[in-house]
Amino acid sequence: MMPLITSEPTAETTHLGPVSQNERINTIDILRGVALLGILMMNIPYFGMAQRFSEVFRNDPTNLNFWVNAVITVLFEGKMRALFSIIFGVGIILFMARKEKAGMTTGWAATGLFFRRMGWLVLFGLIDAHVLLWLGDILYYYGIIGMIAFWFRRMKPGYLAIGVPLVAILEFVLSTLFYQNIRDKRLAYLAVQAVQQAGRPLTKAQEQTVKDWKEAEKEFFPNKAKVDENTRKMKSANYFTVASAHRNEVWDGQTKYLIFGIWDPLALMLLGMALYKWGFITGQWSRRRYWQTMLIGYGLGLPLVTFSFWYGYSLKIEDTEGFIRYMETHAITWNNLIYPVQRILLVMAHASLVILLIQSGWVQTLLNRLGAVGQMAFTNYVMHTVICTLVFYGYGLNQYAEWQFYQLYFLVVAIWVLQLIISPIWLRHFQFGPLEWVWRSLTYWKMQPMKR
């Protein structure tokens, strides 16, 4: 999504405007295209399926949906968003490097331009979430987190990369404290239940304990009645009824729970800066080093994520009732420590595989199309929202909660094909995607030339 440039712009190209075609780094565009298309695999169930959709198949290996979910979880869940965040971090460095090379030596003019850019991204995110009604919008978060990551861009790559393990530890601590808070409410509620079953009256404190658990249960563990009510709203032909189904949840995520959502993308953006400075992300390593990175990543990451998936399946902690039972007997979810490790291993392996394909010259036509998708990532991301909401929501084709899980991926493939065809055609005639053009024009506060 960020305008990308070569690490050493020439005097002829360092004007104060958007990046030109001859300045783009093809490897970064391709990696961004891969990440963007991969993200749709994670997002589409939340467009098209009812809450708690996976509980009917997560523990049933005889169901095709179980295996589709297993493959996607093991290979792609979290990895595509991580890759996208990494590339976003690279874009921060490249944007500022180009502006500073262009003569903004004090940095303040370039800083103002960058923060204006992120400010518009925040606004676009609010539109994507509250007008186009995408529950899982990331533009808002990336705009805010980008403003934070900006201040770390000059650090040495080793220090930038340390952010990943530090944030993994921090998030584990925070999530454990959050988990234990909910668990304490559950255990206190069970104790009160024992008092009720014994026929003794409840004190005011015990009545408050019941109330606290019921409120937590309502917020974090929606029951069937709540799920059915949400589905009814999502299938309404009235736009405002559909909006009411998730707008409060979106707003809570953007405000009340924002502090919890900052750290992971921030660490990944900083990692992206480090990988750029090390030359990994731009394809400057030797083929041998990329092969080593890929083999280590898959060799360690796949067993870890497979074990984690099996562990969740064996204890049935992926469904609501199973998780509540698990919570009653486990004070700490140690299995969560596997996630950040296997994810980084696999995202590095995936990126290495793509870069090796680029270096080999194989499937060049496909790679060029992926680069075009990545160059138009902003437009293509919002296109995902528009297509999926019109297919699934009640004011569109009203297919919400109508499809099997595996059937969603027919639509995913159709959207991939559409964007792999349209993006290169568009870029033959225009310099930017339509939303990229709007974003750049607003950033520079000047209408940018659109046609080639």
From TrEMBL:
InterPro entries: Bact_Transport_Assoc, DUF418. Pfam families: DUF418 (PF04235). The keyword Transmembrane applies. The chain crosses the membrane at residues 30-47, 67-95, 159-179, 257-278, 290-313, 344-366, 378-396, 408-427. Residues 275-446 form the DUF418 domain. The keyword Transmembrane helix applies. It comes from the Bacteria. Keywords: Membrane, Transmembrane, Transmembrane helix. This is DUF418 domain-containing protein. It comes from Fibrella aquatilis.
